[in-house]
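Propose amino acids for all 360 sites.
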């Protein structure tokens, strides 16, 4: 159930470029996960009632949902019904969140403030919001992580703000957090304080399109997916992944990586996907042939000129548990006709290999 939930969250929130969140889809997921039997027979959930006296001005309301997107609002509407579970405030001009903006909304499950102009959030804005699970603050003007985040939130999104510092204990108490998105912020390694992720058991962390020059070493040891694409990382070292033994997907595409230290991948024995495309590697990273479960390795767009017979597959038959389903080597100067056929002896079919000619 935990994995299914993570996949649903990522599917709903990973779209690029920016697309509005579909509240109807989220409500369907909410009804499934919460199993709200009191409303199972309510067939009017998607019928808006703009004339409802309880519906805030400039908003559309349906049972448990208040939608106020694309209305040019400069502040959170007043008199939001206390039984609301979803509030959609996307694409407005809200500049700050005040202390009492969400007062009394103890049943709130999802709060969507994407694409506003928010630069300030009152430290008590999220008090008594113990049921809040989804908090989307992407595409705003925040410079740091807000204080006193809802304690039971499972997904936090701060994509494309102005965050350049993540302070120690920034996510203190968020023991149920599964997804943390910090991509497209001017965040450098020096801006991540030691202990910033204390107490988390997060499954996914994304800091793509930032200013990282090395793999951060203080992420929660629980992570299964790490996205660090589009940074300025120049090398991978053994100590980079020592903490992340549960990692299953690693995104390091579009960096400046020239080398991967031998033994680096030994620390992530459960890895399934490795994305190292569009870097500056001159050879296949060492240690891939010792990974029993890896299925996808992207190496296209590098400077690899030679591929050895044992670069991908173990020497001894039967050592690999999962066959490769995708190895990409196109857009490299390697001459594919010089690669021995047995190099890909542990690949599930010819379609799993992508070579092609190198073109400058």
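Proposal:
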């Amino acid at each position: 159930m935990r994995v299914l939930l993570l996949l649903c969250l990522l599917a709903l929130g990973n779209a690029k470029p920016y697309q509005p969140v579909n509240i109807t889809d989220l409500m369907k997921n909410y009804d499934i996960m919460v199993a709200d039997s009191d409303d199972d027979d309510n067939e009017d959930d998607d019928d808006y009632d703009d004339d409802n006296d309880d519906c805030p001005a400039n908003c559309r309301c349906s049972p448990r949902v208040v939608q106020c997107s694309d209305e040019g609002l400069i502040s959170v509407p007043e008199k939001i019904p206390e039984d609301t579970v979803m509030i959609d405030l996307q694409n407005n001009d809200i500049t700050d969140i005040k202390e009492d903006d969400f007062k009394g909304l103890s049943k709130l499950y999802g709060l969507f403030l994407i694409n506003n102009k928010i630069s300030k959030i009152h430290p008590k804005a999220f008090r008594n919001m113990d049921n809040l699970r989804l908090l989307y603050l992407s595409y705003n003007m925040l410079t740091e992580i807000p204080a006193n985040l809802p304690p039971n939130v499972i997904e936090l999104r701060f994509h494309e703000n102005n965050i350049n510092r993540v302070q120690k204990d920034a996510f203190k108490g968020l023991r149920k957090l599964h997804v943390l998105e910090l991509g497209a912020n001017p965040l450098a390694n020096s801006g991540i304080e030691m202990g910033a992720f204390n107490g988390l058991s997060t499954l996914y962390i994304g800091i793509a399109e930032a200013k990282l020059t090395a793999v951060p070493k203080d992420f929660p040891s629980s992570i299964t997916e790490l996205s660090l694409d589009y940074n300025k990382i120049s090398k991978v070292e053994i100590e980079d992944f020592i903490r992340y033994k549960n990692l299953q997907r690693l995104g390091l595409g579009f960096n400046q990586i020239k080398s991967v230290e031998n033994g680096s991948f030994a620390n992530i024995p459960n890895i399934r996907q490795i994305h190292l495309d569009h870097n500056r590697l001159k050879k296949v990273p060492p240690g891939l042939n010792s990974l029993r479960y890896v299925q996808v390795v992207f190496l296209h767009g590098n400077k690899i000129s030679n591929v050895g017979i044992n670069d991908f597959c173990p020497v001894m038959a039967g050592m690999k548990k999962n066959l490769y389903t995708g190895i990409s080597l196109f857009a490299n100067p390697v001459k594919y006709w010089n690669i021995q056929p047995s190099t890909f002896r542990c690949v599930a079919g010819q379609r799993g290999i992508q070579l092609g000619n190198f073109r400058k």
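The longest helix spans residues 2-13. The CA atoms of residues 164 and 187 lie 4 Å apart.
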